[in-house]
Amino acid sequence: MTNQPQVQPIFIMPEGTQRSQGRTAQRNNIMAAKLVAETVRTTLGPKGMDKMLVDSLGDVVITNDGVTILEEMSIEHPSAKMIVEIAKTQEDEVGDGTTTAVVIAGELLKKAEGLLDQEVHPTVIAKGYRMASEKSMEILDKMAEKITSKDEKILKMIAVTAMTGKGAEAAKEALADLAVKAVIQVMDEENGTRIIDLDNIKIEKKVGASYSRSEFITGIVVDKERVHSGMPKTVKKAKIVLVDSPIEIKNTEIDAKIQITDPSQLQAFLDSEEKMLRDMVEQIAASGANVLFCQKGIDDVAQHFLARKGIFAARRLKKSDMEKLARATGAKIITKLKELSASDLGYAGVVEEVKVGDEDMTYVKECKSAKAVTLLIRGGTEHVADEIKRAMEDAVGDVATAIRSGKVVPGAGAPEIELSKCLMKYAESLSGREQLAVKAFAEAVEIIPRTLAENGGLDPIDVLTELKAAHDKNLKAAGINVFTGKVMDSWKHGVIEPLQIKTQAIGSASEVAVMILRIDDVIAKGGDSRGAPQGMPPGMPPGGMGDY
Asked: For residues 224 and 293, what is the distance between their CA atoms, to the nearest angstrom?
């Protein structure tokens, strides 16, 4: 009898590579996504709680803004990172609804796990989820009501809804008013299309006063002071020049040697430098300008001449601030002073230096038709001011989205319950296994009203049965009032959200859920600490050293 030769195992991947396949891979991915959703779930709604995030340096962030929490958490798991991407996309596209999107994605995967256990193939679930997502867009569109930029009362309700449950809640009425004013001020219309660039709304925060002291400025607040104490502190009927080149003597571009043999030559050289600076200031004064904003530096001698002419000047402004000043005042940004004329100047009713907290800031306000504005946010501490700024960004984003799309839906869990009801009917019209996935999708969207109830300390089963009963009676706007625990008409109570928040959240959540479900093999490279299993040195193969 011949000895069988010993079969040598064949390694096709580098040492230390981790691999999980089939149901194990799916379970791990779904688990990671569910954990991310669970983390932010408690922040949802008017009674949502906040998270305190402490980084390696000990810096603290206190927030209940979904995307901020996920970004600060430094998530490593690849599937969990995909869920974070949903939040980032939601933030970029709409500016709010990040928690909603993440929670729906987590629940879709949780429901899919149950179907996988029933031996439903992942591609069948994926197809059903896609069908349900498309149908959801139709259902939500039918629910939506049309609005325009003239419906300021509704826009204010949208801003209040966005701020409810955030740190700014106590002053939400006043802050919502500021948000609506700011968005309407910067809105442009082109060929009947409403264009709103949120970059034109500068949200500046300053610690010190209470958040009720926040203000809306028809113009720009620049975090700079005048460069010379001899300059006026306040300029009324300001004619503004914006310069993006330095008001200094340029150094030669090449290595040059200036040989001076006589003290009088040195004096002549200095005099000629001074004359060049004086000429620059004369050109600014000749245009009629009495305020100068410079993106680069202003020479000390030039500062003296500007002060003598009574011109207010600030230097080293950010490029973004220069562009906002141009939109607010109507000024053109100049590079060559020789070409400066009166037509290049901008106008503001008042330019003044104001002490805000312990810093001097320059207010450029009362601009005639400002297309760039400032919201100055105040807060008692750094953490309070930061959270109010985040709430304000959500409110501004919601109002802008509502005006752009021109459609809004009721909030408070009403659209999700209506969606669930209509998707269940739609599922009954299907004959294949996709029916199971569509039903799972319908149950998954109920997570939003369920979470609102749980975070409000209510019984979610009682709340959901009451909501479903109201929707069965065709009360499409029936939502949950988390303060009373009763069902309410969301329209009448002013709980209104832009349609795009819902469509974007459901669309991106279902896309990511489908993508994660289709993964059946996870191959992680070895060679670093992330590739090695927990408790094992980097680069070591799974199972330890083994016998070599």
From this structure: 10
b/e code 396-420 from CB counts within 10 Å (16+ = b): bbbbbbbbbbbbbbbbbbbbbbbbb
| 409: helix, strand or coil | strand
- pTM of the shown model: 0.74
Domains in the chain, number: 2
Domain of 120, CATH number, reads: 1.10.560.10
Contact 478, 471 (CB under 8 A): yes
User: How far is Cα 101 from Cα 121, in angstroms, rounded to an integer?
Assistant: 25
Residue 375 forms part of a structural domain: no
| Per-position b or e across 325-361, b if 16+ CB within 10 A of its CB | bbbbbbbebbeebeebeeebbbbbeebbbeebeeeeb
Asked which of 15-24, 30-39, 221-230, 290-299 is least confident by mean pLDDT, the reply is 15-24
| Residues annotated as catalytic (active site), given as ranges | 65, 98-99, 394
Could you tell me which residues are beta bridge partners of residue 215? 376
* pLDDT one-digit tens code per residue, 300-345: 888 888 888 888 888 888 888 888 888 888 888 888 777 777 788 8
> Per-residue pLDDT tens for 512-528?
888 887 877 766 776 54
Closest CA to 63 of 520, 499, 390: 390
For residue 383, CA distances in Å to 61, 153, 360, 378, 388 come to 7, 30, 21, 11, 9
- Two tokens at 423? 């998707």
Q: Which structure tokens are listed for 201?
A: 């709304």
